[in-house]
Amino acid sequence: MKLELSKVVRGCRLGLLTSIGQTEQHSLEVPGCFLYTRCATVPHLTQDTLHTLSNLPAVTQVTLESLAEHQDVLEEFKHGVRKFAGLQDTLLFCSLHDPATTHPAGHVTNKTVSVWGSGGRIELSVAKFMAMQAAIRPDCYESMADGETWQANTSRKRVRKAVERTLSHLDECLELHHKTQELKGCEIFGVVEGGDILEERLRSARETAKRPVAGFVLDGFQSTSMEQELREQLITAVTAELPQEKPRLLRGVGRPDEVIACVEAGVDLFEGFFPFQVTERGCALCFNYTITPDPETAGTSPPTVLESNGEEPAVEKLKENGDGSPENMTRFEMNLKDTRYRDDFRPLVDRCSCYCCKNHKRAYIHHLLVTNELLAGVLLMLHNTAHYLGFFHALREAVANNRLRDLKNKVLQ
Ligand SMILES: [Zn+2]
């Protein structure tokens, strides 16, 4: 895996990740995001409907959590999750936990971590974790980590222990990785822990960077866990310790304003779970990310794709922690269940080129939602994914053209 940076401006890194995975044929632009899946499928969408979207990310995220119960089946199948789930033309990144769900704390030991499947808790040793990776056969995966220090007020002793355990798990994963034939050509990302304690964050970053990892996962910065300002300070300090030529993936952060702030702090990659959470609460992304052309560069850069409808979205409550429940709606979306959309015959977003916006009106989506039709989730997921990927495209354009401040103003409008 190679990260070629074409521009670094005030902490933001613009570049291309190449030579990923066994075939080395795919590339991923940064700043960028992965394609979110659950049980290795994009929720609500078949591969055919998914591929009506253009410019899908080259990397799909699968989670060990959603696959752990199927280890024996995958081992018997022998060809990995990509073939098992019929995924077309994509690379796989395997994470431990599903970023769109929360799980109970208090289930890690010196030697094990736990994940939750539909049948309950599954305890993983490094040996079992690596056996799972061999069965899944991703192109890259994050090493096993003790990530239970994201809550505020976690003690210094507990944070230090998490850093030590995570480094020890990484060393064991690396050792087994090199002995595992099924993981030939696959690469490991090291996980940086350290809670909200600067010196532990730096120690974790420096020690992880000494190991032969392909990239880094910055863990424990989930939206609800700490103040935005502290998070940005810690991420800036951590990324300064990491080698420039390796990618940094931030776990658990997906809201557009937070994505921009974290890109400014030196993050390259995000998990793409936010459109799914928005879909689950019956909402559509509608924030504006189109910045007016700079007269000096007008005509030289490709236009960004969307304009909002110039109206306030129906936000019932503004809570800022964005999981999939209705009370966590953010300012970036409209609630299609609201009766104001009952006779609104406009597309979700004007000039959006997704299948939903080209073929359906807000009133129809409202009708599907209030009658609990499954098609509502399909259409919303298509639009929300298209809108979110369009935002990342606009973000890269803004960094390339020194217009990040303009984009930020537009998104926060
Ligand atoms: Zn659309």
TrEMBL record:
Keywords: Cytoplasm, Membrane, Metal-binding, Mitochondrion, Mitochondrion outer membrane, tRNA processing, Zinc. Residues 297-329 are annotated as: Disordered. Belongs to the queuine tRNA-ribosyltransferase family. QTRT2 subfamily. The keyword GTP-binding does not apply. Binds 1 zinc ion per subunit. Residues 298-307 have a biased composition (Polar residues). GO terms for cellular component: mitochondrial outer membrane. The keyword Ribonucleoprotein does not apply. This is Queuine tRNA-ribosyltransferase accessory subunit 2. It is a peripheral membrane protein. Transmembrane segments: none annotated. Non-catalytic subunit of the queuine tRNA-ribosyltransferase (TGT) that catalyzes the base-exchange of a guanine (G) residue with queuine (Q) at position 34 (anticodon wobble position) in tRNAs with GU(N) anticodons (tRNA-Asp, -Asn, -His and -Tyr), resulting in the hypermodified nucleoside queuosine (7-(((4,5-cis-dihydroxy-2-cyclopenten-1-yl)amino)methyl)-7-deazaguanosine). PANTHER family: QUEUINE TRNA-RIBOSYLTRANSFERASE ACCESSORY SUBUNIT 2. Its main location: cytoplasm. Pfam families: TGT (PF01702). Residues 22-412 form the tRNA-guanine(15) transglycosylase-like domain. The lineage of its organism: Eukaryota, Metazoa, Chordata, Craniata, Vertebrata. Its cofactor is Zn(2+). GO terms for molecular function: metal ion binding; tRNA-guanosine(34) queuine transglycosylase activity. InterPro entries: QTRTD1, Queuine_tRNA-ribosyltrfase, TGT-like_sf, tRNA_ribo_trans-like. Heterodimer of a catalytic subunit QTRT1 and an accessory subunit QTRT2. It is found in: Cytoplasm; Mitochondrion outer membrane. Zn(2+) binds at C352, C354, C357, H383. One of its GO terms (biological process) is tRNA modification.
